[in-house]
Amino acid sequence: MLTYEHSIAGDTVRVHVPDSPDELSVFIDWAQETSARGPIALDTETSGLAVFREGYRLRTIQFGDRHDAWVIGWERGGHFRRAALKALSMARQILIHNAAFDWLVLGEHAGTPLEDLAPRTTDTRILASLIDPRQPSEHGIGTGLKSLAAHYIDPAAPDTQNGLTRVFNSLGYTKETGWAGIPLDHPTYLLYAGLDVILTARIEPVLRRELARLGVRNELVTYEHELARICAVMQRAGLLVDQEYTEALAGRLAEESERYADVAARYGVSKIGSPAQVVEALTGMGERLTERTKSGALSTDKTVLLPLADLDRDWQRIGAREPNPLADAVLRAKRAAKWGKTYAEAFLSNLSASGRLHPTIAPLAARTGRMSVTDGLHQLPSSDHVIRRGILADPGHVKISTDFQAIEMRVLAALADVRRMKEGFTEGGDAFDIHMYTARLIKGQAATKRDRKIFKGAGFGKVYGGGVGTISRQTGATETEIAHAVSAYDTAFPEIKRAGKRWQRQAFQNGMVFVSATGRRLPLDRDRTYAVTNYACQSAARDVLGQAMIEMDNAGLLEYMRLPIHDEILASAPREDAADVAREFERCMTMRLYGVPIVAEAEIGGRSWGSLYGADY
DNA sequence: AACTTCACG
DNA sequence: ACGTACGTGAAGTTT
């Protein structure tokens, strides 16, 4: 048996690598004893991150406690696999850092479904997020294993991921190819594989103590583990891609982008993605640019170029000036390139062996607790159906999208106890329009659609913490108009400002951490404490969706769920059951929050996601 | 790695 | 003292 020693927090720890059936039985004895005593930490090493890709390999499974780790070479087959599976079945409590990944790996490549693993799992990443949800870039502790180990266990704990990248490079591999290529007997690979489980085993009790000290309820921890399982099931199901359609679309968009890039080149812009070139060329054409970026350079973003091209926010001709042909070409070339590369081509290059996308669904990604999804699936263009048309319901299924109505405004009314808003939501019925209601409240029954738009802007401005200037830019109304609207808004709903002040005060008394309605810790940045109103609403809205997702699982809807999108659940269900399933989604998303009704509306589409956005398929 | 831009809720 | 649009993921260019 190979054994590697390392020092962590002053203790000598050992990483064992069994090499024979006899040595495997020593491992099994250890696993039996350890699982009788307490939890076992678990980790896997694989050929990469794309678990569902053709040719993906599970390489090792590691087990460990605070002092010992065992690296079991799954790739060596036979006895090794049987020993790993036996240890896995014996473990009563499992500790994993970022469990969804290992659940999916073990489900796909070791025949151990996450339905079996999840009920036994504690995910240390979840615990860490509930203590401090911020990334290191946001001045938080971070939720990566390395950050947590450095903060809670040993500042000198090795950075095993970066350490391995260096090993990969020294062997002629890259960061990407190394995971698949490194020999299974490489000492650093084995040592680091083992250290990760030892660190996980050491981090878990420290995080538990910290959660108790901070008064974070255990119900919140349990709820997050349920959501992690539900999201992992959605990730495993994935979304079917219409490959033929998407290939044709990618081709069309590439051609369109090239055509407009050629036009831009005639005006001296060889790279449409270079703001400096665009500034220089436009200035040379006599355009005067004034908007600045954060670092002080002249800005050439969409909001600057659209007026130069005589286009409004919806790309319709305004008729106010002669369109600048360069601005027009840059806008069109960039949009076609973005849609083609970030969406159409990405769909195709991220496909699994079965022609599906399996985006990583992170249930606790943002500092507000919001979820995030990779592969661009949270950002597909909604102004046009062409991209979403490439995502299909399963064979025989149709797409169903169920979304909350004005969830953040309802949450704001509930949390800040806004009397007149609550009256509106309570008495307004299912089709209630909060923004028109506000406009009428202030302007009387004569309120117009334009008034509605202005008070909608003022409302979002309140939730987001925006000022008159920004709301004016967003809505297109003048600053005086917005200033009046905002002041009328404050008079109609005085509770909002007061709640914001109160929440800032509470956070200040709690070490600059606001505790949300569900007990989530939301650290504030000292120089923008006004963001607390947004954090409180965004975070509570996320938990309303989270609660609804748990209802959906209980109602047997999980098999239809495909993607959470902040205030929406995208589903795929058999055509003949669609009406019933849609009604059930609506039921699961209907509830009350401090007396405010939360309502949802389901839309049943056709075969493609695009059919919910105007495509006829 | 930092910056800019652009797509979403 | 005052006022501040919030949160993401991804791609391309420049440093």
CATH class annotation of the largest domain:
Alpha Beta
The Cα radius of gyration reads: 27 Å
How many domains?
3
Task: Report the structural category.
Answer: alpha+beta
Index terms:
Alpha-Beta Plaits, 7-stranded mixed beta sheet, DNA-binding, single chain, 617 residues, Taq DNA Polymerase, Chain T, domain 4, alpha+beta, Nucleotidyltransferase, domain 5
Offer a concise description of the structure:
The protein is α+β, with helices and mostly antiparallel strands and 617 residues long. Helix content is 50%, strand content 14%.
Give an overview in words.
- The protein has 617 residues and is α+β, with helices and mostly antiparallel strands.
- The chain has three domains: 2-216, Ribonuclease H-like superfamily/Ribonuclease H (Nucleotidyltransferase, domain 5); 243-349, Up-down Bundle (Taq DNA Polymerase, Chain T, domain 4); 359-418 and 512-617, 2-Layer Sandwich (Alpha-Beta Plaits), CATH 3.30.70.370.
- Helix content is 50%, strand content 14%.
- The strands form six sheets. The protein has a seven-stranded mixed sheet, with helices on both faces. A four-stranded antiparallel sheet has the order 16-17-13-20. A three-stranded antiparallel sheet has the order 9-8-12, with no helix packed on it.
- Strand 1 and strand 2 (11-17) form a beta hairpin.
- It is globular and about 85 Å long.
- The model has no long low-confidence stretch (mean pLDDT 96).
- The chain binds a DNA duplex (9 and 15 nucleotides) through residues 271-276, 293-295, 297, 299-302, 334-335, 337-339, 341-343, 346, 365-368, 370-382, 407-408, 460-467, 469-471, 474, 527-528, 530-531, 533-535, 537-538, 541, 565-568.
